[in-house]
Amino acid sequence: MRELCKVLHVDDDDDIRMIARMALEVVGSLDVHQCASGPQAIADAAAFAPDLFLLDYMMPEMSGEDTLRALRKIPGLEHVPAIFMTARVQPDIAKALLDDGALAVIPKPFDPMELGTQLHAAWQSQQVVRLRA
Amino acid sequence: MQRIGHNRTFSVAIILIAAATTIAAFSAILFGGPAASQIKVLLANNSTELFVFYFLLISTLGLALRRRTDILRLQTSLMEHQAVEFDLQDRALQAHAIVSVTDRDGILLMVNENFESAFGKTRDQLLGMSEADLHWDGRDDQTFLDMQRQLQSGQTWTGESRVRGADGSMLCMQGTVVPFHDKSGRLIKNVAIRTDVTNARKAKDARFLKTLFDQLHDEVYIYDVDTLAIRYMNLRAMDRCNMSPETITSKRISDCDPAFEEGAFRAYVAPLFTKETESVTVEVDQAKGPVEVKTRIYTADDGQELFVSVLRDITERKRIERARLETVSVVSHELRTPLTSIKGALRLLKSGVLGPISDEMRPILEIADRNSERLLLVVNDILDLEKIRAGKMDFTPKPTDLVAFLSDAVSMNKGYGDEHNVRFALETSLQSATADINYDRMMQVMSNLMSNAAKFSPTGGTVRIGLEQRKNRFRVTVSDDGPGIPESARQAVFESFAQLDNVDTSKRKGTGLGLTISKTIVDAHRGKLDFHSTVGKGTTFFVDLPISVASQQDDTGSTAIAAE
């Protein structure tokens, strides 16, 4: 079973990107590439070749969902799993995202000490599903 | 009548002429005079003429007498006829009207049959009774007092009065009362003729209401509780259903809505019959837009039970609710985003992964962390409350065993109890108690009540969770041995952002929205949230929840399971 290593994180908020970087790199020991917008993520994604997308749900210009759709069109990234983060905790939104294939929906504020663990757990459950299939 | 008068004058005239002629003739013979000799000559010389004279005189007198007898007979016959006519008139009056005779003080001396049946009393009961006691407001009835005053002054009274009918209901009487006075002008008695105009008055009121109802923006449906046959629909309602006043009476309420399901409807209106609630309200998405239907039972005067449903177009309200929810959601996002950074930064610092924290720094970091947590709780609570108010909170109930539910509540809140060094203890003699609740929402209520109780409990104390059955309800209680809530603070307890002054500030503060949210949730379960408190001894908050309808029907089954 492959370990989760590379995470592409997209969030328009500079401070949250900073907290998330520490949470994932320092606490979670992950290789993180961060982008401030959907278009930037689309530009960088192929070169970074992430194992997982961590996307903010609500972003100006291009939403998290739209970003994911565009990222999945990039050759080689069609099956990269995604986790959303959202400050709008509406059950119907979370349900729609999960139904659309998101691995998890993490509400903001998130706990930086737990974020890495949450990502690893989601990644592993997805790997299990994949192995069984 | 004029003819009789004329005949009488005629016969009297003939008698007078005959009498005058005879008297003149005899006086002339007896007392002499110029005419006497002529008469004497006439009598002596002409006995045939004298005979004719007397014959004519006697015939005339006879005719007059005969005429007089005829007239008397005619008069008698006419009087008899009048008596029959009067009797007929009286019978018509007695049959049509409510007739009574009272003395000067309003004491009943005579009543007719209509009077007896209108007031539901026998003649024996009525005679001797004061008419005032039959009036709606009794002896203080203003109409009765005004009427008496007018009659005493010798004037006839005409007007409407409200009286107490046979079944105690209000009757409206239109009447005329005529006073009778003796020669000295003293009032002796009053004759009253009344007609029951209650129905006419009601019809008038109904016409007024119909006009009024047709002006309404809301739709009104009135239909039979048993057959669901429509009795009335206002103009708006008929517009929606494409019906006319002529066609509605042959329709049932199900004809107004293609999606109408009688079984679901009967279940939905069931609480109206158990008197649990006065009205039931449901929101329905119809083809023309969302509507709210409020239904209640109305008992008509004839005892017939009717459903009255008022349907309101809530398109605009829903639009505002959506906009409001959207605003709340956006505001919540705008608050949560900076909070994510603040909390995240503090958490990383506190954890020490970024470097060691000095002892001087730690309490300052704790303050920042605690307050950012509190801010987050307020944001969450506001969002919850707005969700409930916008009808977006899921309250779907399921039959749930409250004993198991409370046991879960105790274990789920144990951590909070430990934090305050307070123990939660479930104390109940019930084995099982099924109520229809939404588990998550009611757990939110329990967590709120239990955390409040823990917060106010003395260190090392116990918060008791109780459950008992009260008729058709279960009562869940959460009792603490805290300082108690003074009666003067009762109103404020359920208000938003209410915080009692005497809280030990070293313990964690709440958001001030918890009880408001809890009450809203309990209300949505058709339950009741309230409290008893004794200052210095403690407080017991209680939640009354209706027993599950399903469990009431299946009572024997659940007992058997509990016995096993």
What structural category arises from helix and sheet content of chain B?
Answer: alpha+beta
Strand order of the largest sheet of chain B: 2-1-5-4-3
The mean pLDDT of chain A is: 90
Percentage beta strand of chain B: 15-25%
Largest sheet of chain A: 5 strands, parallel
Taking the alpha carbons of the first and last residues of chain B, their distance comes to 104 Å
* Biggest protein-protein contact in the assembly: A-B, 22 and 20 residues
**Total strand count of chain A, please?**
5
Look at the structure and name the CATH superfamily of chain A. Answer: Response regulator
Q: CATH topology of chain A, what is it called? A: Rossmann fold
Helix content of chain B: 40-55%
Mean pLDDT of chain B: 84
Residue runs with pLDDT of under 50 for 5 or more positions of chain B: 502-506, 553-564
Task: Give the overall shape of chain A.
Answer: globular
Structural class of chain A: alpha/beta
Separation, N- and C-terminal Cα atoms of chain A: 14 Å
The top-level CATH class of chain A is Alpha Beta
Strand percentage of chain A, roughly?
15-25%
Q: Based on Cα principal axes, name the global outline of chain B.
A: rod-shaped
Radius of gyration of chain A: 14 Å
CATH architecture of chain A: 3-Layer(aba) Sandwich
Molecular structure report:
- The complex is a heterodimer of chains A (133) and B (564).
- With 133 residues, chain A is of the alpha/beta class.
- Chain A has one domain (6-132): Response regulator (Rossmann fold, 3-Layer(aba) Sandwich).
- Chain A contains 5 helices and 5 strands; from the N terminus they run βαβαβαβαβα.
- Chain A has helices at 14-27, 38-48, 64-72, 91-99, 112-132, and strands spanning 6-10, 31-35, 52-56, 82-86, 104-107.
- In chain A, β3, α3 and β4 (82-86) form a beta-alpha-beta unit.
- In chain A, α1 packs across α5.
- Chain B is an alpha+beta fold and 564 residues long.
- In chain B, 51% of the residues lie in helices and 22% in strands.
- Chain B has 19 helices and 17 strands.
- The relative contact order of chain B is 0.05.
- The A-B interface holds A 13, 15-16, 18-20, 22-23, 26-27, 58, 87-91, 108-113 and B 329, 332-333, 336-341, 343-345, 347-348, 351, 353-354, 376, 383, 394.
